[in-house]
Specification:
The protein is built from eight helices and ten strands. With 260 residues, it is an alpha/beta fold. The strands form two sheets. It has a seven-stranded parallel β-sheet with strand order 1-10-9-6-2-3-5. A three-stranded antiparallel β-sheet has the order 4-8-7. The longest helix has 18 residues. It starts with a strand and ends in a 9-residue tail after the last helix. The chain binds 2-amino-2-deoxy-6-O-phosphono-alpha-D-glucopyranose (GLP).
Length: 260
């Protein structure tokens, strides 16, 4: 895992976007794995700015990680809406190339299987963007999710519902279930790129990066991936024991490996 610690949240977004833009410039048909939540918003804003400045994203496609079950796609907090307003529209992506799991299907299992098939048909995800929940979840893979899990329905942890209640009028409005790509699905992406900002994420980040590989911390699955990058601000990195080593490594990164 490459751990990058930057002074501010804004720099985290810029650096992650630079890494993605570097790839899109070389591979215009890049398939992005899209996360929702506040963590990746600066990435999407920076990619939109780079598109204005000439980055060609016309052949980029995307697959969202997750969706609430039972929320109409027209609801502003459905991930279909969130991805449209924060990614598809600002980046000018072709809506037909941007996919979100179906949380309204009568047959959820069949819809999950179809989503897995669509990812495979697109050639798999090249760069999976990830945030991290305060309980260590990625996507909506809550603690004790199987490391081999595939896209499926999950029950949201009470803490996740509370954390996400800020986007809704009340806690009661937050759905109890979701559809999420599994940890096994996420592991198949060619690159994983996790961003975290703020002290509220520091424990989860430390557990994921330096704790045991254990499903009780779903984000620890990054330790098993051959190409995972974690970009943090100082606050999110504040509980890492080896922070000095990560800084030293980044400062001494060989030029041919740089993407900033
Ligand atoms: C949400 C999403 C995750 C996200 C996480 C953290 O519920 N399902 O994909 O990474 O929780 O959210 P935030 O970035 O808002 O802290």
């Amino acid at each position: 895992m490459e751990i990058v610690i930057l002074p501010t949240a804004a720099e985290v977004g810029r650096a992650a976007a630079a890494k993605i833009a570097h790839r899109i410039a070389r591979h215009p048909e890049t398939v992005l794995g899209l996360a929702t939540g506040s963590s990746p918003l600066a990435i999407y804003a920076e990619l939109a700015a780079r598109r204005e400045a000439g980055l060609d994203v016309g052949r980029v496609s995307g697959f969202a990680l997750d969706e609430y079950v039972g929320l109409p796609t027209s609801h502003p907090q459905s991930y279909a809406s969130v991805i449209r307003t924060t990614v598809t529209e600002p980046l000018g992506l072709d809506p037909a190339r941007v996919h979100v799991p179906d949380g309204l299907a009568d047959d959820i299992e069949a819809a999950c299987a179809a989503y897995e098939a669509a990812i495979a048909d697109a050639g798999g995800v090249d760069v999976q963007i990830l945030g991290i929940g305060a309980n260590g979840h990625i996507g909506f893979n809550e603690p004790t999710s199987s490391f081999q899990s595939r896209t499926r329905i999950k029950t949201l942890a009470p803490r996740t519902r509370q954390d996400n209640a800020r986007f809704f009028d009340s806690l009661d409005e937050v759905p109890t279930h979701c559809v999420t790509q599994g940890l096994g699905t996420i592991l198949e992406a060619r690159e994983l790129l996790l961003v975290a900002q703020g002290e509220a994420k520091a424990d989860a980040v430390a557990a994921a990066v330096e704790g045991p590989f254990a499903s009780v911390v779903p984000a620890s699955v990054l330790q098993w991936h051959r190409s995972a990058t974690v970009i943090l601000d100082e606050a999110a990195a504040s509980k890492l024991r080896l922070a000095e080593y990560y800084r030293y490594t980044y400062e001494h990164k060989p030029p041919f490996q740089r993407w900033d």
